[in-house]
Amino acid sequence: MNSFFSSTQYKNWIKTEDQLAKIETLKFSKILKRINIVNEIIKIENIKLIEQHNADKNNQSSPPPKLEQYISTKRAFSLTDEKFLIINYSNKIIQMMNTQKHKSSSLKNLTITYFRRFYLKKSILDYDPDFLMPAALYLAAKISSINYSRDDFIKIFSLLKSDENWEKLYNYEFYLCTILDYEFFVYNPYQALLGFIYSLEQKEFFLAQDKDNYIDQEDFKNECMNLIDKMYLTDNIFLFTYSEIALASIIIQCEQKNVNIFNIAEKLGLDKAINIKEFLEIKVSLMKKKISEIPKVSIKEGNEKSKHILKNINRFLNDFPKYQAELNKERKELKGKMNNFEINFAKFEPKIQKK
User: Fold this and answer.
1) Which residue, 25, 77, 123, 234, could crosslink 290 as a Cys pair with Cβ 3.0–4.6 Å?
2) Range of the domain at 163
């Protein structure tokens, strides 16, 4: 854990609830700023139209021409919509990774973490999750050194059948790298969980259970894995360390099975490292609270609601192309940062001397 506390992950991605709220406020303030810029452009154009209408003496029409509408903040997007889409798409990623031929906890951890980190700072209103999702997997596969062919991606994401959408995927990879600030390594709670379970196995925890309260080791591991999956649908991944998330999954599952938590803590040697009572009352309680706040909807209901929200977003962007134009300036800047990174990185490549 010492290496974790000196890592960029701990420094840049572990936050307090107040810090997360400030990041969220900043994210939406950028959207409002862009809306204000567009509205100012529309205002100037409207004034010109009215002046032209009034200056035209031959114009016999009494009412002024129909003016372009201003953007109201209500028409743009809501924080509730944003959170629902992030959770629903995160759940899609989890389900997708759990059914892939590459059963890699590292690949799943990277993909979902990249996705969540991006939308911590950027809005789904501005960046399409249908492209960020494959971009996150695309980058995670590279970092994990797992080979996905173009055909593999097309089987998973049908929208990638066209070359145009592949080009868009590459752009989203640029955006993702920039927002991640090229911090690609992510500590893995699934691996930490396996370490804890191995320790319990060595202490004969699973053998020691009585017949009335028997715990199957493989079932227990899978239940804890599923609980960690749920952690990725919440802000827990930004509030707690990877080992705390792994440990909490064991504690919560043991609570459901009426297993003595302090006995678990003693077997893992936790009582010597942390105040287990404080950990249970503060950190585990907050994690459970966050999990209980996940919208309880079926996959079908979640997908239908997501489609409706995304349809409204597309309608908004089509109605206000000037907003899209302002957004493209930001996207160009993100891509430019990636290009500059590649140029600067190339300077450090060793030069081969000719004989």
Assistant:
1) 234
2) 78-186
